[in-house]
Specification:
Elements: E1 2-6, E2 9-12, E3 17-24, E4 33-38, E5 45-50, E6 57-59, E7 67-72, E8 77-82, E9 91-98, E10 110-113, E11 117-122
Length: 123
């Protein structure tokens, strides 16, 4: 499975962005998908994940209530709607397909990674 993340950009605090993760190859609908982010000088951290059919989602506490993950298996795409953005949300955002259909927060359980998209939130 090959993944490509897009939709990042520069936004003011309080604004919104929607990231997309488009998949090609493989059987995308079998896998859970997660979003992670990495700020300069920091480790990559879990943001949100969705199981294979969209029936279950999980969020990091730092984004709960502001971000929403969803998927459209017919389009082989996962989305991350980000609202009420804060400067501390600034990072490169990566999408990744998990080893199976279940949600994980550990990066080691994700086998296929996209190239990342930059999100910058100005204060």
């Amino acid at each position: 499975v090959q993944l490509q993340a897009s939709g990042g950009g520069l936004v003011q605090a309080g604004g919104s962005l929607r990231l997309s993760c488009a998949a090609s190859g493989g059987t995308f609908g079998r896998y859970a998908v997660g979003w992670f982010r990495q700020a300069p000088g920091k480790e990559r951290e879990f943001v949100a994940a969705i199981n294979w059919n969209g029936g279950a989602t999980y969020y990091a506490n730092s984004v709960k209530g502001r971000f929403t993950i969803s998927r459209d298996n017919a389009k082989s795409t996962v989305y991350l709607q980000m609202n009420s953005l804060k400067p501390e949300d600034t990072a490169v955002y990566y999408c990744a397909a998990a080893r199976d259909s279940f949600i994980y927060t550990d990066t080691r359980q994700y086998l296929h990674w996209g190239q990342g998209t930059q999100v910058t939130v100005s204060s």
